[in-house]
Amino acid sequence: MNWILKQGEWRDLADKVAAGQRIDESEALRLFETKDLHVLGALATLANRRKNGNRASFIVNRYINYSNYCILSCQFCAFARKKRDADGFQYTVEEITAMAREALSVGITELHIVGGLHPSLPFSYYLDMLRALKQVDSRLQLKCFTAIEVLHLAWLGKRSTEQTLRELKEAGLDSLTGGGAEIFQPAVRQAIARGKESAEEYLAVHRAWHRMGGRSTCTMLYGHVETVADRVDHLRRLRELQDETRGFVGFVPLAYHPENNRIGVPHPPTGFDSLRTIAVSRVYLDNFDHITAYWVGLGLKLAQVALNFGADDLHGTIFDERIFHMAGATSPQQQTIEAMSKAIREAGLVPRQRDTFYQPIRDWPLEPEQAPDAVLV
Ligand code: SF4
């Protein structure tokens, strides 16, 4: 155990984490309220190393947004457009498969596909898209749709949520994305995403997917109008569902970006706030194997630091990120394998390329001069 934790006021939590015991909500709040980043880093690293040893992962993937037209107008969203807007877009299935072919040629294993709640595309469009992508390459893992998109498709197709998910799965859906969780607390949700599904509906979609054997990730959008107590409440609800289904493969905290939207938050979350949020998440979510430091929102430099604050994953190469960049993210729109594996190596860990379900594909060599030949796992 780190010497910082061996004495003083943090010994009780350190003993719990070292023994793999669960901390409760008041202890999570206590962690959120400390200003001692060293303690947070030491506790979170203790929890992380128990699960993931000295490895940290990334995925080679590409994002595709099939459309940014949306019938909702969530206050925090800088991505959605109405049909009257000049910069709205939507892609045909043929255009999407062409993007997939291009990305496959550079070695992606996953397509991450989300969009707005389109006002008129039929349910068949989504099934056709999944089928067409699987025809491009049946090994390509399709991680698609947020919970609110699934509810929109169920409404469009006049089907139950379960039947909608079943048909999407039969067409090729491998995993749901975790987007759209925002903050579960109702008043906060109303303030940032009025009209969106409730916390109960978000969790019900993931529960239904998990019950049919599916896996998904989940998220929390932090750093806007919520309190740290709201964050703990959000984590509690995710941990409860995970106790029930074990269907979440990872948790992705998302740093709020304040530009081009209708919420008056002048400053995005600071580096301190992001590191403590990742650290508390790692310690509190004892039933989650993986915590992602989402470089798009954090920047790769801070995401790299987060690898010693509880994160064990940097997310993906992405290639074309739009949602955060339309909200003011200044990070690049893609990362190379070399940049991510270098960031992991510098943090003292072994870079591991993973698939959608965090299963290992290959370890990248410890010394840069050994690249590009990775070690197959
Ligand atoms: S967050 Fe999603 S549902 Fe809300 S307005 Fe934006 S695209 Fe639409």
Secondary-structure blueprint:
Elements: H1 11-18, H2 25-33, H3 37-52, E1 55-59, E2 61-65, H4 93-104, E3 110-114, H5 123-136, E4 141-144, H6 147-157, H7 161-171, E5 175-176, H8 186-192, H9 199-211, E6 215-222, H10 228-245, E7 248-255, H11 271-284, H12 295-298, H13 300-306, E8 313-316, H14 337-346, E9 350-354, E10 360-363, E11 375-376
Helix pairs in contact: 1-3, 2-10, 2-11, 3-11, 4-5, 6-7, 6-9
Bound molecules: iron/sulfur cluster (SF4).
Residues 70, 72-74, 77, 79-80, 116-117, 148, 193, 196 line the site of iron/sulfur cluster (SF4).
Helix content: 40-55%
> What ligand molecules are bound, each kind once?
iron/sulfur cluster
Query: And the CATH topology?
Result: TIM Barrel
Strand content: 5-15%
CATH C-level class is Alpha Beta
Mean of residue pLDDT?
93
- Number of discrete domains: 1
* Main β sheet profile: 6 strands, parallel
CATH level-4 homologous superfamily: Aldolase class I
Radius of gyration: 20 Å
DSSP, total strands: 11
Q: Span between N and C termini?
A: 29 Å
Summarize the structure.
This protein has 377 residues and is α/β, with parallel strands linked by helices. It is built from 14 helices and eleven strands. It has a six-stranded parallel β-sheet with strand order 2-3-4-5-6-7. A five-stranded mixed β-sheet has the order 8-1-9-10-11.
Can you give a write-up of this model?
The chain has 14 helices and 11 strands. It has a 6-stranded parallel sheet with strand order 2-3-4-5-6-7. Strands 8-1-9-10-11 form a 5-stranded mixed sheet. Helices cover 41% and strands 14% of the residues. The chain has 377 residues and is of the alpha/beta class. The protein has one domain: Aldolase class I (TIM Barrel), CATH 3.20.20.70. Helix 6 (147-157) crosses helix 7 and helix 6 packs across helix 9. It has helices at residues 11-18, 25-33, 37-52, 93-104, 123-136, 147-157, 161-171, 186-192, 199-211, 228-245, 271-284, 295-298, 300-306, 337-346; strands at residues 55-59, 61-65, 110-114, 141-144, 175-176, 215-222, 248-255, 313-316, 350-354, 360-363, 375-376. The chain is globular, with a radius of gyration of 20 Å. Strand 9 (350-354) and strand 10 form a beta hairpin. The model is unreliable at 371-377 (pLDDT under 50). Bound molecules: iron/sulfur cluster.
